[in-house]
User: Which sequence fits this backbone?
């Protein structure tokens, strides 16, 4: 009897442990798929995601002396002010203070040093060393240049105005891009592929094989000048959201109508607009899919109509709301 109770107790402890592990794995996974992060080069990925170290005296900022703010290269979180930077002679940017709450300290895998990561995205920055006597704060954040971006003082106001992204698929991406590229508040547009399972897809693969991807457009916009809702309305009015897996002459799931939402707010706005259209009698076929990795299309597809001076054959603007 007692043995049974003990067994149950162990099972309960085990269950709690497994649950804890699953929760932390889920959190880590969320961080890995944050769509607002900047795309990294393989070298940035090696240092920031895989805790690598750049060679001393090779980085962009070890001897950099301008006034401004150093931000996380992956998520743009402000980390260090230039006022905290000092010359340590080590060949890595050194700071004796961090911006409050911006940097997290963790025991390093080597059991001796203290690792520092960005508190917002957990990207690897470097290490922190204490009591070396460099400055009165007795603290040296030893940071890889490649984990940082520098925002000069005069650009700060512009940088504070963070940009946002939206991803839409509405048939041939040339036509969709045509309308978004000229929309006020839109900073940039990129055509590409998303929503499928094939890494690094090519145009041919998306057209002729089953990649699951849709031809899509990634819009970067200034939330002070426009909004996701305004752009989503434009999306619904520049393609036909009632067509299933096609848009005019273009047929196939790669031409499906879809909004790839980046956060819950975008999802809610999209669903609200779809029900508004349904109330007006439209049988909306638009899929509401969670955004996954966006693969840029080949260069010759970018700004197609602007480059060729032609007009879209597949997309016209119609007031629907
Ligand atoms: Zn970060």
Assistant:
């Amino acid at each position: 009897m007692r043995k049974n109770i003990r067994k149950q107790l162990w099972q309960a402890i085990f269950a709690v442990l497994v649950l804890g592990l699953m929760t932390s794995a889920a959190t880590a996974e969320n961080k890995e798929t944050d769509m607002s992060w900047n795309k990294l080069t393989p070298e940035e990925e090696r240092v920031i995601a895989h805790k690598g170290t750049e060679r001393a005296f090779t980085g962009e900022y070890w001897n950099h002396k301008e006034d401004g703010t150093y931000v996380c290269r992956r998520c743009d979180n402000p980390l260090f002010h230039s006022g905290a930077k000092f010359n340590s002679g080590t060949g890595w940017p050194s700071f004796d203070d961090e911006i409050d709450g911006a940097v997290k300290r963790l025991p390093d895998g080597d059991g001796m040093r203290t690792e520092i990561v960005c508190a917002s995205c957990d990207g690897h920055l470097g290490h922190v060393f204490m009591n070396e006597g460099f400055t009165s704060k007795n603290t040296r954040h030893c940071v890889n240049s490649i984990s940082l971006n520098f925002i000069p003082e005069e650009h700060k106001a512009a940088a504070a105005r963070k940009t946002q992204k939206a991803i839409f698929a509405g048939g041939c991406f040339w036509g969709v891009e045509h309308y978004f590229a000229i929309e006020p508040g839109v900073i940039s547009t990129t055509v590409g592929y998303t929503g499928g399972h094939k890494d690094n897809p090519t145009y041919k693969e998306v057209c002729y094989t089953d990649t699951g991807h849709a031809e899509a457009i990634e819009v970067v916009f200034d939330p002070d000048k426009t909004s996701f809702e305004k752009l989503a309305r434009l999306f619904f009015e520049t393609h036909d959201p009632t067509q299933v897996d096609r848009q005019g002459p273009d047929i196939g799931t790669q031409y499906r109508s879809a909004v790839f939402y980046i956060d819950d707010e975008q999802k809610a706005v999209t669903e609200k607009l779809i029900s508004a259209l349904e109330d007006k009698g439209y049988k909306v076929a638009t899929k509401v899919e969670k955004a996954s990795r966006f693969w840029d299309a080949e260069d010759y597809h970018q700004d197609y109509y602007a480059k060729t001076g032609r007009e879209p054959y597949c997309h016209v603007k119609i007031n629907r709301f």
Observations:
- The radius of gyration is 24 Å.
- Residues 2-32 form the longest helix (31 residues).
- The chain has eight helices and 17 strands.
- The first strand starts at residue 68 and ends at 72.
